Amino acid sequence: MGLFERSEEIFEDENILHDDYQPQSLDERGHELEQYTDYLQPVINGAQPRNIFLYGKTGVGKTAATKYLLHHLEEDAKQYDDVQITTVYLNCEDLTSSYRVAVALVNALRDPANQISRTGYPLNAVYEMLWERLDEIGGTVLIVLDEVDYIGDDDSILYQLPRARSNDKIENSRVGIVGISNDFKFREKLDPRVEDTLCERELHFPPYDASDLQHILEKRADHAFRDGILDGDVVPLCAALAAQDRGSARQALDLLLEAGDLARRQNDATVTEDHVREAKQLLEKQRIEESMKDLTSHGHLTLLAVVASTVADPDGIPLQKQTLYDQYQDLAQATDRDPLGGRAFHNHLAELSMLGILDRTKQNEGRAGGIYYEYEIDVALDAALSTLENLHMSDELDLESLRKNARENGLI
């Protein structure tokens, strides 16, 4: 008997629950698909493509809708002799400058044996290689830049690409850009020329509601799990939990997949609500750990200050900076660390908010009270405590009593 053997008691095909699975239909995005299709119509007409920008939180269908429509666009274009479409998809997470994007595009459009290195060329030389390759390809070239906000301030390529034809850089190709971002303020950071060019057409993808998520999960679960494996309340619970949090299909699918995996690891015959709730806690803990791995010890103490202040005031009243700063100073002294100043502490609160660990709300009470922020923990308190308990500084603090108080106050 081998060390590894196939386990087929729970899943029929778990790949269907993974993020890279492309569904055959996106019924829950009918309105957005209709508008998106209208924006892509000039391509099939042989006209200059529109530049399209998609906004929306992570997991709301932006990338799935783009891949779905571009696949159909390429297939439908085959019936027309005068339409030639090439699509290029880049995730910009590691492409933090126009130079890196340009190099990645050259390599995506070239033969694998004729790639260029990521360093060693002037930017203008890389652009020339890109224009040359685009003209060799000809027709319409649609370039998808997913997570385009990672490019940062060096956004010249977002101006150069859409204007390449009108600026006589290319002659035989028409280039269109599809930019995808979950940063709703990204447009404000763009050079005005880039904004006018890139955001020619915009689409906003709102979060899914519980009904949408349940429909998505039901379609996937029918093929992902063996018959009779899921208890009746599992899918509605996964949908409800994800809808209450971020309205993300990705989050709902991860929850369902992890629940099934827990049942498999525990040799249980069915997937139950208990598996879902345990899966939620595990995923929350993993998300916090991933978010916190690059934080300093003062970042960890800032989170602990929020957790401790939340436990001390179980009524759920949002916390203000001064309350949290007082708690943070006590914790820093208890661990023999010099407390940071108020501004540096505020920056740690802002970073935790950006990571989705804290929820920050701006309050404006006019001349009487001024403008200030209120903070609440935005992840499961139990998961935050578990993460903090695994840090090296946990030996210096009485986190066991903190957990006990949280339990007594009904917070976990």
Short description:
With 412 residues, the chain is an alpha/beta fold. The chain contains 17 helices and eight strands. The protein has three domains: 178 residues, 3-Layer(aba) Sandwich (Rossmann fold); 84 residues, Helicase, Ruva Protein, domain 3 (Orthogonal Bundle); 115 residues, Winged helix-like DNA-binding domain superfamily/Winged helix DNA-binding domain (Arc Repressor Mutant, subunit A, Orthogonal Bundle).
Written description of the protein model:
The protein is of the alpha/beta class. It has three domains: 28-205, Rossmann fold; 208-291, Helicase, Ruva Protein, domain 3 (Orthogonal Bundle), CATH 1.10.8.60; 294-408, Orthogonal Bundle (Arc Repressor Mutant, subunit A), CATH 1.10.10. The protein has helices at residues 30-44, 62-77, 98-109, 123-137, 157-163, 186-189, 192-198, 210-224, 234-245, 249-265, 273-292, 297-312, 321-334, 342-354, 366-369, 381-389, 399-408; strands spanning 52-56, 85-91, 139-146, 173-181, 201-205, 319-320, 358-364, 371-377. Strands 2-3-4-1-5 form a five-stranded parallel β-sheet, sandwiched between helices. The protein has a three-stranded antiparallel β-sheet with strand order 6-8-7. β3, α5 and β4 (173-181) form a beta-alpha-beta unit. α1 (30-44) packs parallel to α2 and α9 crosses α10 (249-265). The radius of gyration is 25 Å and the shape is globular. 34% of the residues are buried. The model has no long low-confidence stretch (mean pLDDT 90).
